[in-house]
Amino acid sequence: MLRIAVPNKGSLSAPAAEILSEAGYRQRRDSRELVLADPGNDVEFFFLRPRDIAVYVGSGTVDVGITGRDLLLDSGAAAVEHRPLGFARSTFRFAAPAGEITSLEQVAGKRVATSYDVLVGDYLAAHGVDAEVVHLDGAVESSVQLGIADLVADVVETGSTLRAAGLATFGEPILRSEAVLIRHDGGAEVPAGLSVLDRRLQGVLVARQYVLMDYDVRVTDVEAAVAITPGLESPTVSPLHNGEWVAVRAMVRREDTNRVMDSLYDVGARAILTTSIHACRI
Ligand SMILES: Nc1ncnc2c1ncn2[C@@H]1O[C@H](COP(=O)(O)OP(=O)(O)OP(=O)(O)O)[C@@H](O)[C@H]1O
Ligand SMILES: O=P(O)(O)OC[C@H]1O[C@H](OP(=O)(O)OP(=O)(O)O)[C@H](O)[C@@H]1O
Ligand SMILES: [Mg+2]
């Protein structure tokens, strides 16, 4: 039975439950449940603090987990990223009172407040900057106003928390993070059952990223049309009762939907229909 660690709280928790549910797994009804067996799918879920998940996976007590890339790197655990999951996207950045610190070199000798000591310490060391790291559990943005730090290094999504605290980002992002599926860093050894979980999650991600497009086109225009919708392998072309026309079906990236429909119309395609994909295996 594959043991899967899932975030029990915070930004990762709801979207992690959603992707697992879309992938056909049971999910807990009560947020106080700590363990949930799903014998039908031969897996068991452990609901843990997001920051602890890499530690459990690294120790081998659970096989795989869902956490943030930033939390994985900060943990220093013997766990590796297996697949990015496309949600809880954020950047991890330095910020200081607007105009006061504007480059990484100016961080030398300053106090940096963060909840991600290892990530920040490693980054400063890699860039040869000697600064003091002040550990805080959260609400890091308040530390400068309260006088215990000169700048912060924290998760930024919209930037509104920073702005509200009168802070502005500077320098390159330290990291671009998102939720990731992680596994133990056991070299070539991959936990039994991971490939099924992985394929299912990939199926959900593809179903979210793509739509199915159907259209009719004259045989004379089919090459121009399929060049616009090459699909994953190759589009399906089916005969129509009117032999001068064919029906074409192909997967298209969701974000390209309207642009592709316009281009198809321009080369003579008609009855262009787009439908969502519920689930898939690529
Ligand atoms: N506003 C946000 N947008 C996107 N991702 C976020 C945001 N805040 C935190 N994250 C991501 O969530 C993970 C942090 O987990 P954490 O447990 O700290 O969640 P949280 O949302 O900060 O909850 P809490 O602070 O209430 O425990 C990290 O991977 C981080 O990048
Ligand atoms: O750029 P934004 O869209 O404003 O989002 C970023 C904020 O969201 C998270 O805070 P959270 O609410 O989890 O509080 P915390 O600092 O206590 O973790 C994160 O730590 C930032 O503070
Ligand atoms: Mg937080």
Automatic annotation (TrEMBL):
GO terms for molecular function: ATP binding; ATP phosphoribosyltransferase activity; magnesium ion binding. Keywords: Amino-acid biosynthesis, ATP-binding, Cytoplasm, Glycosyltransferase, Histidine biosynthesis, Magnesium, Metal-binding, Nucleotide-binding, Transferase. It comes from the Bacteria. Feedback inhibited by histidine. One of its GO terms (cellular component) is cytoplasm. Pathway: Amino-acid biosynthesis; L-histidine biosynthesis; L-histidine from 5-phospho-alpha-D-ribose 1-diphosphate: step 1/9. It is found in: Cytoplasm. It catalyses: 1-(5-phospho-beta-D-ribosyl)-ATP + diphosphate = 5-phospho-alpha-D-ribose 1-diphosphate + ATP. The keyword rRNA processing does not apply. One of its GO terms (biological process) is L-histidine biosynthetic process. It is an enzyme of class 2 (transferase). Residues 49-187 form the ATP phosphoribosyltransferase catalytic domain. Residues 207-278 form the Histidine biosynthesis HisG C-terminal domain. Catalyzes the condensation of ATP and 5-phosphoribose 1-diphosphate to form N'-(5'-phosphoribosyl)-ATP (PR-ATP). Has a crucial role in the pathway because the rate of histidine biosynthesis seems to be controlled primarily by regulation of HisG enzymatic activity. Belongs to the ATP phosphoribosyltransferase family. Long subfamily. This is ATP phosphoribosyltransferase. It comes from Georgenia muralis. The gene is hisG.
